[in-house]
Amino acid sequence: MEFKEEALYFSGKDKIHTTSLFKEITNNFTIEFSVKPKATLSIPHKESTNQILGIPGQRFIIGPAHGIDKDTAGMGVSAGENGVIVYEHSGNYLPPLLIYKASIRDWVHISIVYKERTPLLYINGQLVKTGLKSCKQYIHPSGILGGLEPYGYYVGYAKDIRIWNFAKSELEIKNDMGKELFGNEEGLYVHWKLTEGIDAVFANNTNNFEDKMVLMTNDHPTNIGRKGELVFCTSICANYLSKAMVLAKSVKEYHPDAKFIICLIEEEIPSTAREFRYFDEIILAKDLGIPNFYSFIFKHNAIEASTAVKGNLFLYLLNRYIDYNKFIYLDPDIYVMDRLTELDSLLDEHSIVLTPHLLTPEDKDDMIAIKGNEIQILQKGLFNLGFLAISRNPNAERFILWWRDRLMQFCHDDTPNGLFTDQKWVDLSPCFFDVFILKHPGYNFAPWNYSKRKLIVTEQHKLLVNNQRLKFIHFSGIDSGANLYVTRLYIKDSSNPIYTLYNQYISELKKMDEDSLKKIPWSYVHYLNKEKIERSARLNYRNDKNLQKKYKNPFKYSNKNFK
Q1: 156 to each of 104, 219, 425, how far by Cα in Å?
Q2: Is the peptide bond before 37 cis (omega within 30 degrees of 0)?
Q3: Backbone angles phi, psi at 443, to 5 degrees
């Protein structure tokens, strides 16, 4: 990014993130700017008001930020030497509402006017195209300049980007095109001059925009955002709420500035969850944008469903929390014991971080450990997907898209056929993507590695695993009793600090009303007529494409329909 021709030149790798959405402006507004593109864009075969069409290869001078919810979309503009496209962006929704093919080889003035949710395109003050009316209830302009990962970056010159909080007429556009602005113009919301020096950004003082201003100088950044802050997430059914609450509280203890997001695979959000102060957001799985959601969820039991949505959850977070660059998934039965400083640093250099179940081979004569750990892990997956961390990067985004696609079709607890929910798929990830394998024994300390990881308490009351700080412990299998059984199998000494941690965790669960919350029935365990869904019905529906075509929402029917 550099200043040339009294404008800002975008090289195809540059982005300025001022804010995601201008939520104060809705449905009727105007975005205008002058550009001289230096690269072509990919043109979709048709305009659309739904789905995701023709996205790769865009040249987003305004990147369309993700809408806040399913009824809301952010809009953006792709401009190239061969045309202009207007996109909207929300959950599972990134369609081109307006496509205009034209040769643009020199400076042009472009205005996008949204009038009652319909985009109109003006070139040099002349109306040239009216797009499709949006199917979303609320449309907002975006504040992302220069690109949107992974869909494409603008290449070329740009200046004088202006956003107005009303739909301008053709006459108003022509009158203002070459006019110098002073900041007190009625309806002017923000103005980026994009010319060299301190005057690069100019905002109307009357609209309280100071917190969103970015002053561009000669040493301008390429991406302005809160890179050091983390977004943590987990996915659960309501009976695991107490565990998610303990997890969120432990995360916030060591990362008070982080976000904690919970994906709930239920029809409604319980009041207990809404009122819990350590949850920054609760997103229902049905609002993640999963196509044919009720058909999808019917194919899974509760455990499969909680893992099958994880790819979609990461995509949601990448689009929703556009100002954040580091995203960490933790299973709800994890207990964070220290600040994850190593992980935070790793995510500056690596875009995908995984932890293996095991770091050390079992002893050759210990058949219990070999069968219980090594052979089990060969069946279930090399990496424990109770933890996954990514940073915003095309490599990670390609991985998440691939993983999401596989989980949508093949997230099954079916070990005989080579599948174990989301874990087995990730065995392939180091072959397809650049992956960092974190071999710190204090990360993902769990029953399957107790045989080779020793926990001690120092004189300074620090918890160490194999002489490194304990970062988080994974209490997998705590409800079934398997956790305590395996703990006693490998750690005979009842004075070992592992038992103190176990009791501490149980105590925390009780404080979160574990006894009541674990009894909450899953929303998707019954048909609408209250008949309990048989496992055979789910499997038959999953394996029969004709049943899926015939019964778009299988919850409306009965077990007898899926014999």
Answers
A1: 11, 19, 40
A2: no
A3: -100, 125
